[in-house]
Specification:
By secondary structure, the protein is mainly alpha-helical. About 55% of the residues lie in helices and about 5% in strands. Helix 1 packs across helix 3 (about 80-110) and helix 4 (about 125-135) runs parallel beside helix 6 (about 170-195).
């Protein structure tokens, strides 16, 4: 009978799990900054939005596999194991990102939170329409959280160009400041409601 090194296997599992989670976060890019929530037993999750609306979400299984052949095991070293973990993490991150963007699109459509240029070139008006629809958070000094833009390279260049041109236009800056002040007021109301409930 061959010995079973339970403590060694447990330590290896912890190491592999840690490295896998870190590698997935690395491959997720901007999505890695999204706050993670642990859901305990149950068949569904309910999402409560700032506007009071509610959406039900059903669990979605995601899995990916890597294969290590018996003949490979003899010559595998630490770096080779980490490389396999990284390959698995990349596949998992890709699945998670695709699922996330699909669900975000569905939720945005559901609540009417979509801005369409309808085939036109994106303009500053479209950008402001997006800002008006997005919920913003602020820190204790009143500074807004960062806006993370995920877009195709072409769309990203268009947005960057609009923002750059807007910096030199006082009228556009004034419009931007007015939207941000409104968002700051909305955030204060949300925070005070949260403190009253908690």
């Amino acid at each position: 009978m061959l010995p079973d090194y339970l403590k060694t296997k447990e330590k290896l599992n912890i190491m592999i799990d840690f490295n896998l989670k870190q590698a997935i976060l690395l491959h997720l890019g901007p999505l890695a900054n999204i706050r993670e929530t642990i859901n305990f037993e149950g068949s569904k999750t309910v999402m409560n939005r700032d506007d009071g609306s509610v959406s039900e979400m059903n669990p979605h299984e995601m899995k990916t596999e890597i294969e290590i052949k018996l003949e490979e095991m003899e010559s595998m070293n630490h770096e080779m194991v980490l490389d396999r973990i990284n390959t698995m993490a990349e596949k998992m991150a890709e699945k998670q990102a695709k699922f996330f963007y699909k669900r975000i699109g569905e939720f945005a459509e559901e609540v009417g939170n979509v801005v369409s240029a309808e085939g036109e070139t994106i303009s500053i008006d479209h950008f402001f329409e997006v800002l008006e629809k997005v919920s913003r958070d602020f820190d204790s000094t009143g500074r807004p959280d960062e806006i993370v833009v995920t877009a195709s390279p072409e769309l990203f260049q268009s947005i960057a160009k609009i923002i750059e041109e807007a910096k030199s236009d006082p009228e556009i800056q004034q419009r931007f400041d007015a939207i941000m002040e409104q968002k700051r007021k909305e955030w204060r109301v949300r925070e005070s409601n949260r403190k009253l409930v908690g």
